[in-house]
Amino acid sequence: MNRRLLPSGEAAVLVECDGLDEVLALHDALAADRLPGVVELVPAARTVLVGVDTDVLPLESAMTWIRRATLAAPVTGEREAADVATIPVVYDGDDLAATAHLLDISTEALVDAHRSAEWRVAFAGFAPGFGYLVCDDWPYEVPRLDAPRTRVPAGAVALAGAFAGVYPRQSPGGWRLIGRTDAVLWDAQSDPPALLVPGRRVRFEAAD
Prior knowledge:
2 domains, ATP-binding, elongated, Cyclophilin, Cyclophilin-like_dom_sf
């Protein structure tokens, strides 16, 4: 385990981790013991950015708090339960059959695996409202498309690598599309504006 703390400007600390499991564990530990003055926790694939209000929490104090959490955070094990977002999906994506064929399973088996998995938002990126979803029990590694599409519709439910995701708006993309949803992933008037915030559990269900 090798976690480095690096100042990121005058009001943030970047914590480098060895991998995504460490990121998730550290994010959970920090969120469970959040200090006054911690403005945001931003996980990524191998880092957690901790933003602070230095008028409330000096940067050195924040780094001391992070170090304690770093030592306490397990790499594996049960994570605290979080609220669950349920997303209805019509499983008729353009790549559904081809993706099942690549994985050497039936389309029904792929849909069942996607629906039965309990996903978690590991981190956000790519576009506002786009969450990278992971599942400890998801057994598949899905290759990206050889040539990305120039236009993926909003609400497209997709797979790439070990991740699942939902496109919050129309954009280019190279993930394999297995379905679509009418769920609103991003609403600037909401608090928070993103449905899929880091740490949130996600379940997909077949839409009528």
